[in-house]
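ESCALATION

Customer reports they have been waiting on this structure for their group meeting. Please prioritize. Original submission:
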Amino acid sequence: MLVEKLMHSPVHTVKPDESIYNALQLIRRKQIRHLPVVEGNKLVGIVSDRDLREACPSCLENCEQDIIKTTPVRKIMQPQVITVHPLDFFDEAVKLMHDYKIGCLPVVSVGQVVGIVSETDVLGHLVNMLGILAPGSYLEVDLPDKPGVLAEITQIVKNHSVNISNIILCPPRDDGYKCLVLRLQALNISRIASEIEGAGYRILWPVVTGG
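Update from on-call: job pushed to the front of the queue and completed.
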């Protein structure tokens, strides 16, 4: 999946010379958590709701409101911004957010901010990918890292006339095994689990108590 399919556009932005007060009001009004800071068409920084809140710890007092109404966003913005391109892949965006421990990624094309991807967008997409919202059951199997084992497992599931809504195959471990996680469109999968165990595979979940 490409970033352009996930990003929010158009993007709410703020200018570096705009006041912290105005930026805070914009974030509250639009119910967003991040504001790219642009000068002309160029991205020069980013501020989060946390940055803005920390800049006005006592914003209910008049004296503090005077300060944040006259202090520009450039004083608190983060000038080093990690970005992605609309044609970057979803997993590249997720890796950047993980590696840099950031909550959003402005999407930049031809030097202009064209969208934004937040951790909420990423989480929502993962929920859809995993089929968590639909009824079903998880099946976790420990598999040897060799050809043909995945096909054997899925054939057993097929023999029970159960659909697979999602497959996750974890990287191999040092012991030569890897974990297979299946999301099955069935609530009772005990017979499937028992048959897989009978074929010589170790069931990690659910616990098999008999056929």
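Sent to customer with the following note: Confidence is low (pLDDT under 50) at residues 59-63.
Escalation resolved.
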